[in-house]
Design a protein that fits this description.
Keywords: 3Fe-4S, Amino-acid biosynthesis, Flavoprotein, FMN, Glutamate biosynthesis, Glutamine amidotransferase, Iron, Iron-sulfur, Metal-binding, Oxidoreductase. Belongs to the glutamate synthase family. This is glutamate synthase (ferredoxin). GO terms for molecular function: 3 iron, 4 sulfur cluster binding; glutamate synthase (ferredoxin) activity; metal ion binding. Residues 55-67 have a biased composition (Low complexity). With 1164 residues, the chain is α+β, with helices and mostly antiparallel strands. It folds into 3 domains: 86-505, Aminohydrolase, N-terminal nucleophile (Ntn) domain (Glutamine Phosphoribosylpyrophosphate, subunit 1, domain 1, 4-Layer Sandwich), CATH 3.60.20.10; 539-866, TIM Barrel (Alpha-Beta Barrel); 948-1159, TIM Barrel (Alpha-Beta Barrel), CATH 3.20.20.70. The chain has 36 helices and 37 strands. A 7-stranded antiparallel beta sheet has the order 9-4-10-3-15-14-16, with helices on one face. Strands 1-36-35-32-31 form a 5-stranded mixed beta sheet. Strands 11-12-13-17-18 form a 5-stranded antiparallel beta sheet. Strand 17 (475-479) and strand 18 (484-486) form a beta hairpin. Helix 18 (672-692) packs across helix 19. The radius of gyration is 31 Å and the shape is globular.
């Protein structure tokens, strides 16, 4: 049997039970550092997980021993709870005049129950992912309940209440500690009550982790005003959440407020109303009710994670979460509050650990409202701004507010419908792209109903006075105190005029201002010393020192300078992973860009350009809690690329009292590996000292490399270590970081630097190379330096926009520091030091190895000066070269295969097999695995014959258009003859191929693909399929859409795709039809209706967290899951997408299997 090499590894979820255990050991191959896959290469114990990192597993086992019944599983194997996603149904009903009634609660119940389809069920089909309701305090109900305990409740407004999740064993001790904490803050606990519940209403899984729900009542101190009491209660809840949590104790506060109360739990949306008997009591009167039902992609949803949270309920995803949370932590170093004074530090961390994106957002929103003088709607506007940067029609005052707010905090970006309330205001806001639905009605009874879909609330059309939907970035608000509905324009105009934002913005700093000021201030510095002619352009020794190759120059850089955009490639990526390379890859190559699939939509950076923005502020951030002109004292950049003259300017800038500290990231070559490691520590120390000493800018520079025996530390490692060190020491917000480096030149490099904390970048070697190439006539001689800088910046901007859009992020400001990458082959110590919080699941290279490779590059460049070393290397990272980097598809194996096929030559087939397996060993993770040899062998009679095994073969999904019609049909005929399956790809299939076919030459493809372009998807196309495959992402360029240029659209292609010859065809990134897990569930249902006999398959691409997405897909009733690898298929894309997005399918398949087994969904 030949080894079959495909991009897709299929998952037979429909038929296969959890598989038997098999051990996998890591073998040493001569070019493979056994540390590069973590651990020492010893045999690990048998288990059904890929044990690639022994130490991690040990930690995980210890954690699991202590797992309490109410806790979700911790990190294990390739599963990490950090990767959970959720999508939801959300809605609210409010009496605009604030009039209480029981009817509002009953209507909210209808609303909630009709959104049941938005939630999901666990493996017992009876436990929801979470549902809840937030209502105003039902004073009458609570007075009556406490009277039975002999307690008199004060008037409404004179007490705060909330429900706690505790456990039977420790609740008394926890309550006693809470009472003591309240007393220390000058508050008195009136009483506790057990919230009455009906256990029989909930599912088996929910029952296992059911908490003891206890409700507390806290008295308002005499003489304390409403706002002060609200803040005291906030401090009490925040401190209790930090101080009363202990190992083995359950302690969670659903809410604690003098206006609202939250009832929630692990329910479906109809179980909620049966479980809490309070909600059935006619005395439960309220003027508002916010309901939520949750679809978690995982089935480890918990009681605690259900919504509503303290001030919000959320449908969607925050894609920039890691950066937002890191920067919020860093702000703790510069925040001060008149309201809380010294108490402020006791409220840190603002974002509590281990929260979902919604939980983190909730913490920050509540903190902003409580600790500064912002109203709730203004805090929401600050965190979720409209797309103001390119909106010419926006009133100037509002634009100025948003630009001021951008200097205060980066947007929390991602598709989201956020409904929020503090008991006075209740409202909703949509993200800047409007990628979540939201409808609302106002009735004659003066009631407003908002929901994430239509049809959840019956109202006679004659009773409706206003009917509308929320538009992108817009807000809807009801003020129950003023008794009115405030529309977006009026609300935002009022907030924009509340302070002199336009006046303050006059104080922002621009590069032009610095240029003008410095012309007068300082004598011009001599231009950088020009290199001798023999070391310019392609002969510049620094090119080799920083790992450039002739491919880098010819295929990537020259097109950027000439055409202002990145070059395109196609046909996938078959070069080795960085951790398997033989040619000292630079650290950027270890990082793979993450992308959106299923749980949130990628966006289209060209057709939705209006929401994209590269603008961002540079420099220290002022106190977030004190709105003032101080916040705009930052340099406003239109994009992150700095020219050489501007970087020189910033280095010596003293305008407005600013000072810049240049951190030299070079060290002496003879200090060796230790010198490299010490240099990183020195950079962290110097950066910290500069921030403490009041410098505004840090420039990390490798300008000194190659001079007087100096080597540079990788700019990425220096930046990552410095950025995280400054966050940990709370100094990061006091400085801006500019990176002046020769190392970064490609779009991916710039993205990685931005993702790990750079505010602006000067890739000076790329610029100097372009200037030299212009002088050599490679680039048009009339191009001046300014045009070179502009062309490169434009190419990089377009590239960054594409990378951000894959993840559904629209502003560079949110992308910066968000770490939206996974590392493949970096060791855990290195990640902890320089890239904290980044996933690197197979372990790998250490700082020592990277240091050694940096020193090797220096040795190659400046060591033995032979004529050979003067010529720039070309290891063949893109195109195969003899003696260069290995490639999976290499000429000799293709030659052998053709010889074997044409002349039926068995020797040639053996040669093909040998060279192919050898290539896989050099390039792919699966090549590092070895068979276990100490097992009893199975008798051959028990093994299926080859004729049966080949029936499970399937071809990759390639549309004709990407390959010729003849090739496409030949694949179909072949697969039909052996009983396997061919795949149409997303280009459709002509009906004459599946109607009236000769069985021996049938051209029908068994797998029919449905992609976002819906090309050629007709009723008969769907009816004539064995499998219907929904294409959520493609391996060649996950997160991007496909495109067939007009000149390739022939008559045949146009006929099949139901289009016009010569007109270009685009299948957009898949958000025009599917932008959340519920939409996918709906499409699965629709396809099942169109062809009940077909198996519904979903194609995903491997990335960290794909297992979590797959379990959501299984809950959406898919019967088959395909995990595609990063090496991709035929699609054309920019080289950045082909080389740096997506992960090996080996990791995706292993993670998906493990997470489905953990979830008890593998048998589905």
């Amino acid at each position: 049997m030949a080894p079959t090499i495909t991009d897709n590894c299929e998952f037979e979820c429909a038929t296969v039970e959890a598989t038997t255990t098999s051990a996998i050991t890591i073998g040493d191959s001569d070019n493979f550092d056994s540390s590069a896959i973590g651990g020492s290469g010893d045999n690990f114990e048998e288990s059904n997980e890929l044990h690639l990192n022994g130490q991690q597993d040990q930690d995980v086992q210890e954690e699991q021993q202590q797992q309490m019944p109410w806790e979700a599983p911790g990190k294990q194997g390739l599963y990490d709870p950090q990767n959970e996603h959720e999508a939801c149904g959300v809605g609210f009903i409010v009496a605009i005049d604030g009039k209480r009634s029981h009817k509002i609660l009953r209507d909210a119940q209808t609303l909630s129950e009709r959104m049941n389809h938005r939630g999901a069920c666990a493996c017992d089909n009876d436990t929801g992912d979470g549902a809840g309701v937030l209502a105003s305090i039902p004073h009458g109900l609570y007075s009556k309940a406490l009277a039975k305990q002999g307690v008199t409740l004060p008037e409404l407004g004179d007490y705060a209440t909330g429900i706690f999740y505790l456990d039977e064993a420790q609740h008394a001790a926890a309550e006693k500690e809470f009472d003591d904490l309240a007393k220390s803050l000058g508050l008195e606990v009136i009483a506790w009550r057990t919230v009455p519940s009906n256990q029989s209403a909930i599912g088996v899984v929910a029952r296992k982790s059911e908490p003891l729900s206890r409700q507390v009542f806290v008295r308002r101190p005499a003489g304390s005003d409403e706002k002060a009491f609200e803040r005291q209660v906030f401090v009490l809840r925040k401190r209790a959440s930090h101080e009363l949590i202990k190992p083995g104790r359950r302690f969670y506060i659903c809410s604690l407020s003098d206006r609202t109360v939250v009832y929630k739990g692990l329910f479906t949306s109809d179980q909620l109303w049966d479980y809490y008997t309070d909600l059935k009591d006619p005395e439960f009167e309220t003027y508002l009710a916010l309901v939520h039902t949750r679809f978690s992609t995982n089935t480890f949803p918990s009681w605690e994670r259900a919504h509503p949270l303290r001030v919000l309920a959320h449908n969607g995803e925050i894609n920039t979460l890691r950066g937002n949370v890191n920067l919020m932590k860093a702000r703790e170093g510069v925040m001060q509050s008149d309201l809380f004074g010294d108490q402020l530090k006791k409220l840190y961390p603002v974002v509590e650990p281990n929260l979902s994106d919604s939980g983190s957002f909730d913490c920050v929103l509540e903190f902003l409202t409580m600790a500064s003088d912002r109203s709730l709607p203004e805090s929401v506007m600050t965190m979720v701004p409209e797309a103001w940067q390119n909106d010419k029609t926006m009133p100037q005052e509002k634009r100025d507010f948003y630009q001021w707010a951008a200097c205060v905090m980066e947007p929390w970006d991602g598709p989201a419908l956020i409904s929020f309330t503090d008991g006075r205001y209740i409202g909703a806001v949509l993200d800047r792209n409007g990628l979540r639905p939201s409808r609302f009605y106002v009735t004659k009874e003066n009631v407003l109903v908002m929901a994430s879909e239509v049809g959840v609330y019956d109202v006679d059309p004659s009773q409706v006075t206003l009917k509308s939907r929320l538009k992108p970035g817009r807000m809807l608000l009801v003020d129950t105190k003023e008794k009115k509905l405030i529309q977006d324009i009026e609300l935002k105009a009022k907030i924009a005029k509340s302070r002199p934002h336009s006046e303050w913005l006059q104080q922002k700093i621009t590069l032009d201002e610095i240029r003008n000021a410095n012309v007068l201030n300082t004598p011009p510095v001599d231009e950088l010393a020009k290199l001798p002619a023999s070391e310019r352009g392609i002969f510049d020794p620094r090119l080799s020192l920083f790992g450039y190759s002739t491919e880098t120059v010819n295929m990537l850089l020259i097109p950027m300078f000439k055409n202002k955009k990145e070059a395109l490639g196609s046909m996938g990526n078959d070069a080795p992973l960085a951790c398997l390379s033989n040619f000292q890859p630079i650290p950027y190559e270890y990082f793979k860009q993450l992308f959106a699939q299923v749980t949130n939509p990628p966006i289209d950076p060209f057709r939705e350009k209006v929401v994209m923005s590269m603008q961002c502020p540079l420099g220290p951030e002022a106190n977030l809690l004190q709105p003032s002109a101080q916040q705009v004292h930052r340099i406003w950049l239109t994009n992150p690329i700095l020219s050489i003259p501007d970087t020189q300017l910033l280095k010596r800038n003293t305008h407005r009292g600013w000072r810049t500290k240049v951190l030299d990231i070079t060290f002496q070559y003879n200090e060796g590996v230790q010198g490299y490691i010490d240099a990183i520590d020195r950079i962290c120390r110097e950066g910290y000292a500069a921030a403490q000493a009041g410098y505004q800018l840090l420039v990390i520079s490798d300008r000194g490399a190659g001079i007087d025996g100096k080597v540079a530390v990788s700019a990425l490692l220096a930046l990552g270590a410095l950025h995280h060190h400054l966050i940990e020491t709370l100094q990061r917000m006091k400085v801006g970081i500019v990176v002046e480096t020769a190392e970064a030149r490609e779009v991916h490099h710039i993205c990685v630097l931005l993702g790990y904390g750079a505010d602006a970048i000067c890739p000076y070697l790329a610029f100097e190379l372009a200037q030299a190439l212009r002088d050599d006539g490679v680039i048009a001689p009339e191009v001046n330096d300014k045009q070179i800088y502009a062309a490169y910046a434009q190419a990089i901007d377009t590239g960054i926009a594409k990378v951000m859009a894959k993840m559904g992020i629209s502003t560079l400001q949110s992308y910066k520091s968000a770490q939206i990458f996974e590392a493949v082959g970096l060791g855990s110590d290195l990640v902890a030091k320089c890239f904290r919080g980044t996933q690197s699941r197979i372990g790998g290279v250490t700082l020592e190895i990277l240091a050694k490779e940096g020193l090797q590059r220096y040795q190659l460049t400046y060591g033995k000066a032979t004529p050979d070393t003067r010529i720039l290397r070309n290891p063949g990272q893109y195109h195969w070269r003899h003696g260069g980097e290995a490639h999976i598809n290499e000429p000799s194996s293709i030659g052998s295969l053709q010889e074997a096929a044409v002349n039926k030559n068995l020797d040639a087939f053996e040669a093909f097999k040998k060279t192919t397996l050898d290539s896989v060993k050099k390039c792919a993770l699966r090549g590092q695995l070895e068979f276990v040899t100490d097992r009893q062998s199975i008798d051959i009679s028990e093994v299926e014959p080859a004729s049966e095994i080949v029936k499970r073969f399937a071809t990759g999904a390639m549309s004709f258009g990407s390959i010729s019609l003849e090739a496409h049909q030949t694949l179909s005929i072949t697969m039909n003859r052996i009983g396997g399956k061919s795949n149409t790809g997303e280009g459709g299939e002509d009906s004459d191929r599946y109607l009236n076919q000769d069985p021996n030459n049938s051209r029908r493809s068994a797998i029919k693909q449905v992609a976002s372009g819906r090309f050629g998807v007709t009723a008969s196309y769907l009816a004539n399929a064995d499998d219907l495959q929904i294409k959520m992402a493609q391996g060649a360029k996950p997160g991007e859409g496909g495109e067939l240029p007009g000149y390739k659209v022939t008559k045949d292609i146009a006929k099949t795709r139901k289009s016009v010859p010569g007109v270009g065809l685009i299948s957009p990134p898949p958000h025009h039809d599917i932008y959340s897990i519920e939409d996918l569930a709906e499409l699965i249902y629709d396809l099942k209706c169109s062809n009940p006999n077909a198996r519904i398959s979903v194609k995903l691409v491997s990335e960290v967290g794909v297992g979590v997405v797959a379990s959501g897909v299984a809950k959406g009733k898919a019967e088959h899951i395909v995990i595609s690898g990063h090496d991709g298929g035929t699609g054309a894309s920019s080289w950045t997408g082909i080389k740096n997005a997506g992960l090996p399918w080996e990791l995706g398949v292993a993670e998906t299997h493990q997470v489905l087994v953990l979830n008890n969904l593998r048998s589905r």
